[in-house]
Write a structure and sequence with these properties.
Four copies of one chain form a homotetramer. Chain A is of the alpha+beta class. Helix content of chain A is 31%, strand content 26%. Chain A is built from 18 helices and 25 strands. In chain A, strand 13 and strand 14 form a beta hairpin. Chain A starts with a strand and ends with a helix. At the A-B interface, helix 1, helix 2, helix 7, helix 10 and helix 11 of A face helix 1, helix 2, helix 7, helix 10 and helix 11 of B.
Chain lengths: 465, 465, 465, 465
């Protein structure tokens, strides 16, 4: 899989050394962004900030964490494309405006960022980054000038698209989620204190109890006076559009999001595949890590035994020097080696979460063949990817998507497999608990809940720099 | 598990840019040592060396690899205890002596190193490291002075204990294995060229075909003239004593060592446990990564379903700042989180490879309880650890071993589990293919194939520094 | 001396690999700022930027320089106080606004920055740094919205204080200097191409010929169409107020600024001291590096021989671990050791450029005494420092200034010298070529050419963060 | 000057936190070696060691220094040629032998190292570095085996050449100097404690008082029992051969070595040049830093005024990226800029310490011409360099020496100067206090006090690696 999530968020309010909790929480959310990490803390009077490029464990040291003083803090991990991969774009984003200091961390993507940006530029505003998050702060500052209550609610009301947001000011932490709730955002407690995280797996590591999700369209204010809820949109008008791909691929299996256990959803996806696309085979194997839960479900539902076809080399990180840039098979093998004794002479059902470009997938299938697999039947837990995401996931350019380039028969040939089956849309939606129309599946169907401009989202901003 | 392997070896002879193959091979062997890495290459006339502290990907850059020129190279990854963790002790170990230049890389532990060292010191030799490997080079230089053939064979004949060795000189690569063959050492081919590795998983990544193991007591010379075999001990006198713990814990599941697939051995260990220590439960879960293969075997043999009780956070490396040094549960959870939805209300069989100190294990059991597991039945794929290893594995001090401190009932209480069962010695030996007396199991039984001094091995050397 | 200049500037237009020239120029200007360095280059279509904390040679590598493509580039070195010492505040400062991309580098200090900032905040602007330079870009963007010609001239017209500025856009480089010309800014040529630098010493290293200074109140545009001059203020209304302290302390002796050779001015300062404050002594010694030129002048004018009383240890950089934080003498000695054989038994005239806090100075006098000097007559090339600078120099808080705390007799006792004499104001002004009222000497006299608010300049901004 | 000293030494015995003093002392000796630094300390029972590549301030941190515990410590700074520039060759060199632990730091070069090495290799010894220092430790270990008193004295008696040595064992610090005393080595006191250093400038920074030099052929033992002196050679047989080039170039001007103040010797060298090679000129200028003291002497003796022709850019370190590798003039100018106002139209006497290759010198002369100097009369404080040094200084290959390639007239043309004069041998020797035959001047005269093999010293060792 080559898709990239943009971000993970964690906030804590009312805890001694809040930044320490945020640090641990970000560790649990590292899968949501590996290129930069940042924390802003409040000691009640001032905000302190530290950001850097790299993994959480590389950016922060004991000494840095101890300088991020105070009982409230928010943090952010981020993925970004190469072009804009610099510390200027790391979050949280801290500014001063007429209302004082405020910092924000954002997961998602705004579809009207470019439009708003041009509007603000035309009025004389300057932009120092290529993040769509910057526009939120401009709107906030202008809205503040107009006075009145509900500053955050009003300001956010102007942006469209996907956003789970965490704000911090010297006195408050604020969590907000767009009216469709594209990205997850959960509330938890540690004793009397509050924590907020993109996924519940970050609660476990920090000893927090899950309370509820921030509702789509809700703005939750945490302060010394307790918790207070505001709305961007009345809850009656809210139409949830949860990103189904969080369940398929992004979220950690030990998280509960959108009301479902991610692991359980994936097992159901595997079971449904077994039902819809059965095959006469000897054994089920997963493509780790993504296909592991679904392969269990397929095995249970089909009665076929499961075994370990691949072993992950957990030490192959970003530093591996490839023997030859064009030899994808060798590169894939550095991370994932086949257990020949398991697959030799066997008819295999191979389960993976999704296929985007297909090149890495093809290399893995080749490894199975080379190790002596007799038949390879490939099963994918979601439908074919056909459309871009404007709500915070960074897929390759459309012409690079395997299912755009080829029809099913061609894909089978490209991957050199004996059979291939994707999940159906209905099949996929039957594995989650909310009503089918509460999910966004635009990357499969092109049915976009929020209309974006002809060229939208991050792409325009990137190109203008 | 807190036991540490000392080393991994990889060598290549007759390949353009041999150091590049060694680099890849060391990546695949990174699990055998993560504290230092080194490569020595030969361009036919001179040796070039580079060593450093850290993982293979941290120590070597494209630029360094390209400076390690030549068609032959050997490499080494190493674990070491804190006290002697410095680059002086990194290997391969390169010297000049009357025979010219030679470098050596060593996996194992010599039981007569301290005795030989004192003997050599008494004769006026100086020692610059705390590695027992250094004595091998002293012996080699003295032996060379005496002239005659079979230099390596004669020199090695003086040391006792466990050693798989790789030597390189400007013209030769030499692989040697002690007469008991404690540690694995395999020969492979890439086209006409030769490679040698501690485990076969390192062949896969470098596109090599497994040929055979270096036999216990054998010395294999690779040169422009081809391959030539010498003996430390006539093959008839050799008594193999393969380290059974390589199968239990150290080797990668995708390797074949001592004639068996590691993954298959582990599955058999799990299956045997299911037979010897059955339990009325709802589900089998593994402690990843070590218990994963065995849990599959237990599930298959028992008919109990298997599921994912734990999820590994692959980003938690050496950099994690612990929230509180004494809180082992929190620290364990940073690496390994429970999937509550899977274990809640369930009677679990939990399979792990081994238990040494028991403290981390207890923390994991506590996580299962906290997540709502109804019953926890703990199954260990090997017998209780009771004795130190003098042949290259670094267990904790004896008084720290759980099975030394407590009897079975006490261990059950210490771990707070509902039942516990270890594998039997016979059970364990029934899962491997060679005759039972071809294995060393001294860490379980105290039956040492090679007698060591009262205080032996690395410990003496360390203390004298 | 504990005063700190804020910045140095270098720009090149019309040169292949312009960033390479800027890199060299910044090296020559490193004395004007050692905490961060940055370069922005233009390839005619886009701007590329790289900034970092540290010295020029630490921030930039061959690889980074080669990525800063194009035939135009500007660069900046900066000193900053600890509080705001972070890469966010490094310059040049690059933004996008309705007019496209623009970057700016600033040497000086704006006295109405805080006022303007509050005004802009009240209108809804956000600020992301604590630099007063940021307000210039806000004004620029607003001014652009109003349309019309002379954008830079109009925008700069709104700020007050000291500013030498370099702008770069995809098509232009622009150099501007405030109507008083507080800070130097020089124009040079390399063949047909143009360069701009804070001091002429940066021309020498880049093979450039000095042409003229940017005039006070002038804005010089460099583009493909050649050079074009605009005005912030008609030249008839301009009242130059060159910072005399550039000559005393900051500028390099091999530079020509404000029409005078810095070295020659310093020699004249020394000669004038010899005339105004003669002393019956054996020898003149300088406090290197600052007093070296003036000591030559004193020696020539007085006829007293000059010798090397102190030797500088050029290797003591920022990394020296002090033996004991309170022992200033030991710390001073690490950098500057006395040549005992020279000073023993001698009556010395000791010449230094200036005295601010006096603590380091006292330590140096103590070293001379300890080495056996018989008499120490201290001569300072400028008057006593009594007032803060609001135009770009960072002196200590007023109550820390030696001449504020003590009268002349007390200073003599504090420094433990046999006599002391400062330069007079008239004496100082007689050593430079422009009319006396063309210099700013507010740090000595409190006569500020531009009135600042009650609390001004950088101080307010820092405190509000 | 392209000659390189090999090392600087500093030791402390009887001081709390002795390593801290050594750290400071090494800072003062940094000019004697900039490529590696190391300290070994003793807490009375064990030795602790830390070494690294780079400057003292880069290698050691507060934390490392605090781990080097104990009341005795020795340290070393080293220069080395590229080929053998690695941390293995950094000193002090710590070993274990039958006598326990010992470490050594060495300044100088042994002329019989290669011979001894081959002899030891033939007897079965192994060598792990390319340092000639290693042989000393081998001899020490063999000598210890033979028993008897005077171990160090006996062992050192076998090596020939130049050596100032510092040893440390758990209980002793030992300083030794070869019978010719080629390299300096001084003893000082801090209260009741003892310090030893290559030059006295290192005493000043550590608050030590100079006591005396270690005599040629003397071995001084520092222990809890006080100080005790042994001899390698009876003092009556000692023939001092102090390296005159230490005075000319290497030592710091604020040091006293071989009984003379370095600065005073250099002034006398300048004065003697004025007497022997007078010239009708307007002004004397020095090539800093090396020619500064001598230029003062020339000015005083000739009555010609002195001025600053060059300004040093103290920030140009090892990091400067050259604009063009072949353009030496530009590269020279980055470090050293001419003050045009001083030299324009003037007839200059330019004083430098020495000329080795002449290329950098030529670039400096060109800078003076370019700045408008009317005449350039070049004066060198020592005779022409014609021969290699086998006693610890690393000159270029003989065929690269300017005076080997050209005669005086050709050198004048090569440097493009109006006149040139070198110091005479007699003139040079008249400026130091010891009898002329107490100095080694082999690099000028080829008269080697100790005969070396045809190819000797470090060169053989380097080539064999």
């Amino acid at each position: 899989m080559d898709a990239k999530e943009k971000c993970g968020l964690y906030g804590a309010f009312g805890l001694e050394n809040a930044s320490r909790y945020v640090y641990q929480g970000l560790f649990a959310l590292q899968h949501r962004g590996q290129e930069s990490a940042g924390i802003v803390s409040s000691d009640g009077a001032d905000l302190a900030s530290y950001k850097g490029m790299g993994l959480v464990g590389e950016v922060f040291s004991e000494e840095v964490i101890s300088r991020l003083r105070g009982t409230a803090a928010i943090g952010h991990v981020r993925y970004s494309t190469t072009g804009s991969s610099n510390v200027n774009n790391a979050q949280p984003f801290l500014i001063k405006y007429s209302g004082g200091e405020i910092a924000v961390a954002h997961n998602g993507n705004l579809v009207n960022a470019a439009t708003l940006r041009h509007e603000y530029e035309a009025q004389g505003s300057i932009f120092q980054t290529t993040m769509d998050t910057e526009i939120i702060l401009h709107i906030l500052a202008r809205t503040h000038r107009q006075g009145g209550n509900g500053l955050i609610e009003k300001a956010i009301g102007r942006v469209q698209g996907a956003y789970s947001l965490l704000f911090i000011t010297p006195g408050e932490m604020i969590a907000a989620r767009d009216p469709h709730g594209f990205r997850p955002l959960c509330i938890g407690r540690v004793g009397e204190a509050w924590v907020v995280a993109s996924e519940t797996c970050a609660f476990d590591i920090t000893g927090a109890q899950f309370v509820r999700e921030v509702e789509p369209g809700e703005v939750v204010h945490f302060s010394a006076d307790g918790i207070r809820s505001g709305r961007i949109l009345p809850s009656g008008e809210v139409k949830p559009k949860y990103c189904i791909f969080e369940h398929i691929y992004f979220a950690r299996p030990d998280s509960v999001i959108f009301g479902d256990s991610v692991h359980e959803v994936r097992k159901r996806l595997g079971a449904r595949l077994a039902q819809d696309a059965p095959v006469d085979a000897d054994m089920v194997v997963a493509i780790p890590e993504g296909g592991t839960s679904a392969a269990l479900g397929y095995s249970e539902a089909s009665g076929l035994p499961i075994d370990r076809g691949f072993i992950v080399n957990r030490y192959v990180g970003r530093t591996f020097i490839k023997p030859d840039a064009v030899d994808r098979a060798a590169s894939a093998q550095a991370k994932l080696n086949v257990v020949s004794e398991v697959v030799r002479g066997k008819r295999l059902v191979v389960v993976d979460d999704s296929v985007v470009r297909g090149t890495t997938c093809r290399a893995k299938m080749a490894l199975l063949r080379k190790a002596g697999a007799k038949e390879v039947h490939f099963r994918v837990t979601c439908p074919p990817h056909l459309y871009p995401c404007f709500y915070g996931i960074d897929f390759p350019e459309r012409q690079e998507l395997l299912a755009v380039r080829y029809n099913l028969e061609e894909i089978k040939e490209f991957l050199k497999v004996d059979s291939i089956a994707y999940q159906t849309l209905d099949g996929m939606l039957s594995c989650v608990s909310n009503p089918p129309d509460h999910y966004c599946h635009a990357c499969f169907t092109g049915r976009y809940p929020v209309v974006a401009g002809q060229k939208t989202g991050k792409f325009i901003l990137e190109r203008t720099q």
